[in-house]
């Protein structure tokens, strides 16, 4: 059986591609700085109370800001918004202000709410989960949810042509 021992990585990639998660855009602000990036690692993780988790790469500027933030916004992004996905996932806020040319308004805790992506969840950060992997989970308590527009999500397999603005690494400043 492919992937039981050798070839596990390739089989893992195949299974993940078959599940083909919807992509989202996560934004964060800490009072002074703000940023956002394309995210594929996210899910529901509790029903009562409702909890949502997003996993941010420790290499990303969005992660560094999230560490100091009280809230994060999780925006749905549609298949016909690939250009916006490329802007937010292919560039890093360490080089350019990705939000400069986007229309946004401050939400709870100042978190940027992107006008182009009206369907979103804003959550209060309950805890950060550090499993010593290259991503850290931010567990969110939903405080605001908007369901609007679209509904044909951009899928992982439609976004793998985008080269991440920050290569994943474990190196970190904590
Ligand atoms: C298909 C795809 C999936 C991604 N998934 C995640 C993710 O789950 N978590 C994350 O932190 N970054 C993810 N990224 C990478 C960031 O979007 C990218 O490195 C971005 O440039 C970071 O920007 P920043 O440094 O301004 O935060 C993904 C990128 C792509 C192309």
Summarize the structure.
It is built from three helices and nine strands; from the N terminus they run H-E-E-E-E-H-E-H-E-E-E-E. The protein is α+β, with helices and mostly antiparallel strands and 174 residues long. It is globular and about 50 Å long.
Roughly how much helix do the residues carry, as a percent range? 10-25%
Cα separation of the termini? 41 Å
Choose one word for the global shape: globular
Q: What is the gyration radius calculated from CA atoms?
A: 16 Å
- Strand content range: 25-35%
Strand order of the largest sheet: 2-1-5-8-9-4-3
Ions, cofactors and other ligands present here are: flavin mononucleotide
Structural class: alpha+beta
Write down the overall mean pLDDT.
94
Helix count? Answer: 3
- Unreliable stretches, pLDDT < 50, 5 or more residues? none
Helices and strands, in N-to-C order?
A: HEEEEHEHEEEE
What profile does the largest beta sheet have? Answer: 7 strands, antiparallel
Strand elements, count: 9
């Amino acid at each position: 059986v492919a992937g039981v021992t050798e070839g596990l990585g390739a089989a893992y990639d195949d299974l993940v591609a078959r599940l083909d998660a919807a992509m989202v855009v996560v934004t964060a602000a800490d009072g002074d700085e703000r940023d956002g990036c394309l995210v594929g690692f996210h899910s529901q993780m509790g029903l009562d109370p409702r909890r949502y988790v997003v996993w941010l790469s420790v290499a990303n500027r969005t992660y560094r800001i999230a560490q100091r933030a009280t809230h994060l916004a999780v925006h749905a992004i549609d298949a016909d918004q690939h250009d916006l996905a490329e802007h937010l996932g292919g560039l890093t806020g360490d080089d350019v202000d990705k939000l400069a040319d986007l229309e946004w308004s401050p939400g709870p805790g100042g978190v940027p709410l992107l006008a182009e992506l009206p369907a979103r969840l804003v959550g209060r950060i309950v805890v950060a989960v550090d499993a010593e992997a290259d991503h850290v989970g931010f567990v969110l308590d939903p405080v605001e949810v908007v369901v609007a527009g679209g509904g044909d999500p951009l899928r992982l397999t439609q976004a793998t042509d985008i080269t991440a603005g920050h290569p994943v690494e474990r190196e970190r400043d904590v």
